[in-house]
Amino acid sequence: MRYKIVVDSCCDLPSEYRKDPRFEVVPLILSIDSYVIVDDDTFDQADYLAKVAASSDCARTACPSPELFMNAYDTEAEEVYVVTLSSPLSGSYNSALLGKNLYLEEHGEKKIHIVDSLSACCGEAQIALKIMELCEEGLPFEEVVTQIEKFRDEMNTYFVLDSLETLRKNGRLTGMKALVATTLNIKPICCGVRGEIVQRSQGVGIRKALVKMTEIVAAEIKNPENKRLFITHVNCFERASVVKDMIMSKVPFKDAVIVDAAGVATTYAGDGGIVVTC
Known about the structure:
By secondary structure, the protein is α/β, with parallel strands linked by helices. It is built from nine helices and 13 strands. It has two domains: about 5-30 and about 65-155, 3-Layer(aba) Sandwich (Rossmann fold); about 155-275, Hypothetical Protein Tm841, Chain: A,domain 3, CATH 3.30.1180.10. The protein has helices at about 45-55, 65-75, 90-105, 120-135, 140-155, 165-170, 205-220, 235-250, 265-270; strands at about 5-10, 25, 30, 35-40, 60, 80-85, 110-115, 155-160, 185-195, 195-205, 230-235, 255-260, 275. Helix 2 packs across helix 3 and helix 7 (about 205-220) runs parallel beside helix 8.
């Protein structure tokens, strides 16, 4: 195997790639009350959402250790590409870097490139699958690095959540100018800017907010015929399908993929959350 792609568990890979030997998922840790949950294939979303709903505490996450990343780099593959959660939102990127330094000190030189996704969930998946495509084209390591950084910089991330409380309580909303009044059922339309969360617009109720988000996506996308639409949902496949259909009716993406959120995205997007990247 010439290459390997390592992702942290916030990356919502389509199910067909989760057992693919070209990919390895390094898990984060989730916690709620006294429960500690490894965000791997044993994650039970329904049980976790029930625990979160029943708790007065806030769910939290912990990034993987540098040693876990270092172990993932220990492979016969000549090239290793790593995709992590946005560095302003998580320590996963720094942990991956430390893991690289530890690996190089112990094993010597190896081609390892770490991509700060400046995004999350389906945004990480977008980058991971693009790396796979570039590698399958036979491009050299340096060219893959150049193209994937450009791809990351041109990618947009948008989301609408039923609640921003978990993000707020965990300090992930430092880029927000102000929070709208949830008592009025106003739902912010948020996006990622340089890896931080900012509010772009808002709608009264989740339906109107989602419609407005699709309009923003359609207005801002460039060269959609060469791009893939990716949607992560948390326990709301029908809602995600409606969003996909609304966007695809406006924009000719080459493909559209809906993925269920793993543990980290479930924690922060919450029940009913929708995240879109393109």
